[in-house]
């Protein structure tokens, strides 16, 4: 069977990485809130019982366990997206015309998602932003975890408190993304089915720029 007939919208490795990432992110967010509660950054903002680990040290253990899954799985996802051309194919190009049309539909509360094989401009931007936020979380996390070994990194991020702030803001971006992402996925359940089963089969990938015909 030619490769083009076997290609699915969400190939198995992508689905495994996506769901592992979802679990790891939730562990990281909830345990992060437990750690944050012990030394708040924004006075009055306290996550209370919404946490993993009943006290800071226990939350920290969850955070350290989750970080390995998140970082290793994230590296595989980045490598896979770059090497297979998935990022280029699914997230690019982002055109102004597409952005305008998507914004118009969104403001009219028109949820157009009948073609699962194409992300709209807002989806593309949100996915790129959340991938960058994930990278920022790992980098700022390293600066907070090992501020002596990664002293240059910590300094670049504005010392320990600056790195903490970057880590907090990255978390806020990811949580904001997650709320919209899960809500939209629930509103269009066929996208969740596709992320579980692979979704429709796709035609052969577009040729890489400069590749021989
Ligand atoms: C736990 C709840 C989650 C659910 C139910 C969910 C669901 C989905 C679904 C249905 C898609 C396919 C969208 C489509 O075809 O239109 C998708 C794609 C995606 N999701 Fe999630 N997701 C979850 C968590 C996350 C988290 C925590 C992140 C990252 C922080 C994330 C990042 C992404 C990205 C980057 C894609 C695009 C993947 C690609 O095409 O390479 N998701 N998600």
Give a verbal description of the structure.
The chain has a single domain, classed as Transmembrane di-heme cytochromes, Chain C (Fumarate Reductase Cytochrome B subunit, Up-down Bundle). It starts with a helix and ends in a 16-residue tail after the last helix. The mean pLDDT is 93. The protein is an all-alpha fold. Helix content is 69%, strand content 0%. It is globular. Bound molecules: protoporphyrin IX containing FE.
Features:
9 helices, single chain, 213 residues, globular, binds protoporphyrin IX containing FE, mainly alpha, Fumarate Reductase Cytochrome B subunit
Short description:
This protein has 213 residues and is mainly α. The chain is built from nine helices and no strands.
CATH class: Mainly Alpha
Structural class: mainly alpha
* Beta strand count: 0
Following the backbone from N to C, one meets helices and strands in this order, namely HHHHHHHHH
CATH architecture: Up-down Bundle
Distance between the termini: 21 Å
Helical percentage: 55-70%
Portion in beta strands: under 5%
Q: Characterize the biggest β-sheet.
A: none
Overall tally of structural domains: 1
**How many helices?**
9
CATH fold-type name: Fumarate Reductase Cytochrome B subunit
Rg value? 19 Å
Shape: globular
Assembly of the depicted chains: single chain
Distinct ligands, ions and cofactors found in the model: protoporphyrin IX containing FE
